[in-house]
Amino acid sequence: MATSSPHPISPYPIGTPGKPWADAEKAQWRSRQARKRSYETDVLGKVARLRERFDAVEYGHLDYPPDRYPLLALKSRAWREDLPGALVTGGVHGYETSGVRGALRFVDEHMADYEGRANLIVAPCVSPWAYERINRWNADAIDPNRSFRSDSPARESAALMRLVAPLSGRILVHIDLHETTDTDESEFRPALAARDGKVFEPGEIPDGFYLVGDEENPQPEFQRAIIAAVAEVTHIAPADARNEIIGSPMVAPGVINYPLKRLGLCAGITDAKYKTTTEVYPDSPRATSEQCDAAQVAAVRAAIDFALARR
């Protein structure tokens, strides 16, 4: 069942209710964001070890003084122009931990299985500043996962689009790894409402794994195959009393659809036939962090296997 999540009764501590943030409020918000973990240790260190088996490319860097972050992706070493492409992205929202860990674990344990069958490219942590601060936004108080468009204000999103642009027509499948957490209701949606000068309206957090497909190209069999694979690892989120998940109609068990490109979502950055966003619920009493990471890996494998079987 969907779960009600804690939400603040008092106004968000930054800004004036009903008034969008200006630069001063964004600076105040930024000053509250402390580094809690290390991108260098958790991501760059693992990428360095994976370089022994796969090609690593630096596709950009982020300068948020005094911090500077190289943006890295891992690619199949036996790259062939005649093979279909598979794109895996994680950490678009830096606080969604299993997306980062799941992407790196997939590379370590399974990426070599696809050599000679597909060209894989994995960007495991798209938003390193947010990863270190366990936040949804980047340092400019911008949500990268609403910013994948040609005039993107998010440097993280723009860099990934530049990496993918030359490959867009050759990507068969793209899976973008995310989480839905209790802090969506306790922190990030209230912050969004405050930033935009709107009223925060509490919602519900789905208890379990679900997928967000493409409203314009839903591919229901593809989504069902991923759900079936993940169900062997962890539980699938049911619909709420309105037969919805996070306010959208459930079109199949554990599946909703969004207009990916129109919303500027990462899963919409290519014209891949098969695309989806995963959503793991790490705060569930029924799931461990190991299950969350394993669910992301299972989803990636099922997505690529389905697409290659039907190319």
TrEMBL record:
Family: Belongs to the peptidase M14 family.
Disordered: annotated segments: 1-23
Gene3D superfamilies (UniProt xref): Zn peptidases
Residue span, Peptidase M14 domain: 35-311
Entry keywords, A to Z: Hydrolase, Metal-binding, Zinc
Official protein name in the record: M14 family metallocarboxypeptidase
Alphabetized Pfam families for the sequence: AstE_AspA_cat (PF24827)
Cofactor(s) needed: Zn(2+)
Species for this entry: Luteimonas galliterrae
